[in-house]
Task: inverse folding
């Protein structure tokens, strides 16, 4: 395995190597995903299954995410061959792995941007709560 690559065994048993993309490409993917996620309305009455369905469908349907994901995919390998989306997933077996491959590539490249989000949201919420009148 080459340096910087993370080997993944997909649910199908096939292997891929995931490489982090350069900052600009990874940031473009992060922005595309964030841009689509604002369209997702969160309803506290929804169950987790419905939320996950909406997130997956939004990601799969988005041409913005697909366009930003492609350069990141091209840095990875699938079954020992560099990924070229229109070729690598042409076979029926390859299509079975497509979403898993996309998820792994997105996780590798977007994950580092999101690590501090929870802490930032927590600080922001605390600041907003200080501005609101007390309900006591």
Result:
């Amino acid at each position: 395995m080459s340096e910087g690559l993370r080997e993944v065994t997909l649910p199908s048993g096939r292997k891929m190597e995931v490489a982090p993309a350069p900052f600009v490409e990874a940031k473009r993917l992060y922005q595309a995903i964030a841009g689509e996620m604002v369209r997702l309305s969160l309803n506290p009455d929804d169950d987790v299954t419905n939320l996950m369905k909406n997130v997956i469908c939004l990601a799969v349907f988005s041409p913005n995410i697909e366009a930003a994901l492609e350069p990141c995919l091209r840095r990875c390998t699938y079954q020992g061959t560099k990924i070229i989306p229109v070729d690598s997933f042409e076979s029926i077996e390859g299509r079975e792995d497509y979403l898993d491959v996309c998820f792994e590539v997105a996780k590798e490249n977007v994950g580092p941007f999101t690590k501090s989000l929870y802490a930032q949201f927590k600080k922001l919420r605390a600041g907003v709560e200080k501005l609101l009148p007390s309900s006591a």
